[in-house]
Amino acid sequence: MNSQPHRGERGDRGDRADRADRGERRPSRPQRGRPAPRKDGPRRPPPEDPARRAALDVLRAVRERDAYANLVLPDLLRERRIKGRDAALATELTYGASRAQGLLDAVITACLDRPLSRVDGVVLDGLRLGAYQLLRTRIPEHAAVTSTVDLVRADAGSHTAGFVNAVLRAVSAKDEAAWLDELAPSPDEDPIGNFALRTAHPRWVARSFAEALGDKGPELEAALAADDARPEVHLVARPGEISADELAAITGGDPAPYSPYGVRLPAGSGDPADAEPVREKLAAVQDEGSQLCAVAVTRVPVDGRDERWLDLCAGPGGKALMLGALAALSGATVDAVEKAPHRANLVRKSTEGLPVTVHVADGREPELEEGYDRVLVDAPCSGLGSLRRRPESRWRRQPSDVADLTKLQAELLASALKLVRPGGIVTYVVCSPHLAETEGVVGEIARRAKAETLDAREFFPGVPQLGDGPYVQLWPHRHGTDAMFCAVLRRPETA
Ligand SMILES: C[S@@+](CC[C@H](N)C(=O)[O-])C[C@H]1O[C@@H](n2cnc3c(N)ncnc32)[C@H](O)[C@@H]1O
């Protein structure tokens, strides 16, 4: 369950521990890799700690500006020219501390003599970074504590050093397992609460997984544990341009088990945006579950004409790329609707050269001519199915978000059923297993529109463990994909 450091990272950490053991200080704030100037005469420049500095700066941006760690960190690594082991360590610490925030906060709280809410934000970022190193990596205690004290001192002042040191020493008194034994509720009385804390998930998220799985036992634990692990990167080979086998050979990955276009990269393969086929737009980064849902849209048989396709929520364009490439091969065209102009631009970039027309519009009233043969509604959702790829989002999302989203999802699905021709197909996808966003929305709207619900499992050939149907719910612990949901509806001929 723990995201242990790679073997390569350990040497790096060992070096840092040695430096810390020699009492060497880190710079107060390394600027693009340069040590901070000192005013008190010539001294040996202090060693740098660009990885932990980067991690702390990203944690701060996430907390203060609602930034996304997986957007801020790559930019920051590039800007500061942090590479190799330092980049790997910064990534591990940033994503790990973000993902585990609830668990770290519970342990930190147990070591405080005041409520967590009374700890200064910058100091709290540092405590989380330090506690993560102590509980979920093999970084030596001395290095984890000293480096964190130094970083926080540089940002928040010398007066914080004693406090940070004392709290982290208290955290280090026990390992993660011992802390969990002390803090987690009893697994017999409160299994959801127990698994939630052990796998660093908010309780409401763990409960929504339990409801979707119909399980509060070992399968729930496996699902939450898989969701707490560092995800593999998946690539999609652009249909008609390169095969999955060729892409795997070039990138050193493996052809994906289920998607005919997918490749899974081994952990630690570096930034996938740097891979040559991605730079040349022969391939893109896309979770295999998302690929499978896009391919499923085109696999459903339709009677008669099959040349006008619609992607009703297209930004940033992952599935539009797949639909556009498959449309080009079959002689169809795609209209791609996206409400946010900047995301519509991303769709334009992603589908350049393909028979895709992008429209900036509200999918509930896009003012397009009705009569599409196939419509995809990849609706805005809570994203509870891709929490492993968006480290901080599990702590940012609130249960109240779901109510607003289900209203929008229902309106978009109803709109799709109007835009599709009688006998045409609507595929509804969300990256969430939350029952309100999945079966709740589809059941209600299909009933109102008198739409036929097809068995979506037929359009995921070769994918095991898809349950009783008619819907498909993918899971990280079963399929190694994000937890994508897919329903397939046919508009009745007479409606
Ligand atoms: C889950 S994402 C779609 C992902 C996309 N299909 C892909 O594979 O890359 C949902 C998208 O719907 C857009 N959206 C939200 N409300 C919308 C609306 N009323 N009409 C059209 N698009 C909307 C969001 O901006 C977001 O880009």
Summarize the structure.
One of its GO terms (biological process) is methylation. This protein has helices at residues 7-21, 50-65, 69-79, 84-99, 101-110, 121-136, 141-156, 161-171, 176-183, 191-198, 203-213, 218-227, 244-251, 276-279, 288-299, 318-330, 341-350, 393-396, 399-419, 436-449, 476-479; strands at 233-237, 254-255, 262-265, 283-285, 308-311, 333-338, 356-360, 372-378, 420-430, 452-454, 472-473, 485-490.
Features:
alpha/beta; 12 strands; four-stranded antiparallel sheet; binds S-adenosylmethionine; 495 residues; 12% strand; disordered N terminus; globular
Low-confidence spans: pLDDT under 50, at least 5 residues?
1-46
Q: What's the number of helices?
A: 21
Mean pLDDT: 91
Overall 3D shape: globular
Distance between the termini: 50 Å
Largest sheet: 8 strands, mixed
Chemical compounds bound to the protein: S-adenosylmethionine
Total strands: 12
Helix content: 40-55%
Return the structural class.
Answer: alpha/beta
Task: Report the radius of gyration as a whole number of Å.
Answer: 24 Å
Record the SSE blueprint:
Elements: H1 7-21, H2 50-65, H3 69-79, H4 84-99, H5 101-110, H6 121-136, H7 141-156, H8 161-171, H9 176-183, H10 191-198, H11 203-213, H12 218-227, E1 233-237, H13 244-251, E2 254-255, E3 262-265, H14 276-279, E4 283-285, H15 288-299, E5 308-311, H16 318-330, E6 333-338, H17 341-350, E7 356-360, E8 372-378, H18 393-396, H19 399-419, E9 420-430, H20 436-449, E10 452-454, E11 472-473, H21 476-479, E12 485-490
Helix pairs in contact: 1-7, 2-3, 2-4, 2-6, 3-4, 4-6, 5-6, 6-7, 6-8, 7-8, 10-11, 10-12, 11-12, 15-16, 19-20
The structure holds S-adenosylmethionine.
S-adenosylmethionine binds at residues 290, 313-319, 337-340, 343, 362-364, 378, 380.
